[in-house]
Amino acid sequence: MEFCLAYVPARAELYRLNPSAWFVLRMCDGLTEPELAQAYHGALEPVLSLEDCRREVRGGLESLLGMGIIEKVHAVPRTAKVTKRK
């Protein structure tokens, strides 16, 4: 896969995601950022260190949040989770 398309109906915008952003998007539903980084590392462990995975996940989340594709959900006190917009 070279890229993925994500549509945000509320703004009628279409975004082209690279494989890294697509992976973060697919894994983010209900996971915390550290859980996402761990899952990302599990998929890429031989290639990237855990610290590199944390940086990539942080950048992916910031991009996806900025595009309005995901939003933070504060379901548990002091623990921010991210989920896909409905």
Provide a descriptive summary of the structure in words.
- The mean pLDDT is 85.
- This protein has a two-stranded antiparallel sheet with strand order 1-2.
- The chain is built from three helices and four strands.
- The chain has helices spanning 19-27, 33-44, 50-67, and strands at residues 4-8, 13-17, 70-76, 79-84.
- The two termini are 25 Å apart.
- 45% of the residues lie in helices and 27% in strands.
- The protein has a single domain (4-84), classed as Winged helix-like DNA-binding domain superfamily/Winged helix DNA-binding domain (Arc Repressor Mutant, subunit A, Orthogonal Bundle), CATH 1.10.10.
- The chain is of the alpha+beta class and 86 residues long.
- It comes from Usitatibacter rugosus.
- InterPro entries: PQQD (IPR008792).
- Pfam families: PqqD.
- This is Coenzyme PQQ synthesis protein D (PqqD).
What attributes does this structure have?
86 residues, alpha+beta, Arc Repressor Mutant, subunit A, two-stranded antiparallel sheet, two-stranded antiparallel ribbon, 45% helix
Q: If classified by CATH, what would the architecture be?
A: Orthogonal Bundle
CATH topology category name: Arc Repressor Mutant, subunit A
The rough form would be described as: globular
pLDDT < 50 runs, ≥5 residues: none
Any idea of the CATH class?
A: Mainly Alpha
For the termini, the CA-CA separation is 25 Å
- H/E order of the elements? EEHHHEE
The total beta strand count reads 4
What is this entry, summarized?
With 86 residues, the chain is of the alpha+beta class. Helix content is 45%, strand content 27%. A hairpin with a 4-residue loop joins strand 1 and strand 2 (13-17).
